[in-house]
Structure formats: C-alpha cells, structure tokens
Amino acid sequence: MAKGKDVRVTVILECTNCVRNGLNKESRGLSRYITQKNRHNTPSRLELRKFCRYCYKHTIHGEIKK
Prior knowledge:
Elements: E1 8-15, H1 16-20, E2 32-38, E3 47-52, E4 57-64
Antiparallel strand pairs: 1-2, 1-4, 3-4
C-alpha cells in the first residue's frame, strides 16, 4: 500500500525577537532550530521557548516555511 502524507514532519523554528528587530547591528544573525512535529497532534504552527544565542536569552521561536 502506498503511504499518504508523512505524519511526522521536519520544521524549522526561528527566533521571533531577532526577526521583529530586523537584524539590528548588535545581532550577528538569526537563531534557528530544526525539530520534528506530529501533524495530527499539532496542526497549527509550533511555537517553543528556546535559547537564542544572539539575543543571549530565552525567546519564543516560531515555525517558518521552508
């Protein structure tokens, strides 16, 4: 049997604080994490609090499109 869409998908989480500030001169880049999510359990966009090494604090990282 052919399999349908994969249930577990790979997603990229990006720091919302760095993006909102427009990569100011103090920031050296964007903090991104790669993780997986279950499409059936979390159909909406994923948001997690992760450590941003450019902001030097824990911020909300949101799912972005590939």
